[in-house]
Amino acid sequence: METRQDFLVGLLIVAAIGAVVGALIATSGWLERRYDIYMRVASAEGLTVDTKVFVQGLEIGRVTRIVPKVDTSTRTISFVARLSLAERFADGSRLQLPVGTRAEVTPQTTISMALAVRLLLPEAKTARRTMLAAGDTIDAERRGMALDEVTEVASQLSKEVTRVLEQARSTLTQVEGTVARADRTLEDVTPDVKRTLGEMARTMGRTDSLLARLQGTGFADSLSTVLARSNRLMLRLDSLAGRAQSLTAENQSDLRESVANLAQASRQLNNFVEQMSRRPYRMLTGVKPLPPRDTTHAADPPPTKP
Fold it and tell me: What is the CA angle 91-64-46, rounded to 5?
């Protein structure tokens, strides 16, 4: 009786082990029929035996071998990887790759360091297409990782910022030249305006005196009217000259404030370029701006000479 129980227990254990082994064989693809094609790539960095092969997102095989090849004429080194691909899909339909299929070596995910081989089918479709056979070779390209793309974007941004800085410096130079020319023009014109106004004031005084004498002798009213209008015109000219001088002084302060703002923007852009050049990952974390300078004294106009 005990012998029979031991036999049944052993039989159950053997059946369980067989079921486990059968499941492993079925899921691992040991009994799956496969064929090999070869992939030519310039660099084998990151590629390993057992790297996964995908077509349109579906895993269809693995890399089973990587062999270096030396060009005898140029002495350059390339690599040939053997891809073991399944002959059929899970539903039993044949897996056939058309001639013109190429490979791309890319990261499996945007944050993963592991690589994968992705087969890209040709876009052109014809009624009769030739299919790749076992032993054929396809070309492969490598696509940069996310950090490389961020670095490239940072480099492009750095060039753009440098160009903006150059334009800002050119604008500052032009503004400073304009302010300098305006100051020189005011300095040159002010003495002439003051001299002209003084002469006009003296002329108006003599005209008023002459008008008083002529009115006492009964001179024509039409001449008196003309002289009175001329007097009012001269007063308006004097007021206009004063307003022009005041407006020029106000614009000079605004120009200096604009120059100070452009200088602050130039400091911020220089700090941004320097931070991005040292640490490209700040494209993701952000760059801390510089504190604004104290422009109280810079905005004040220079003291006038007595």
Answer: 110
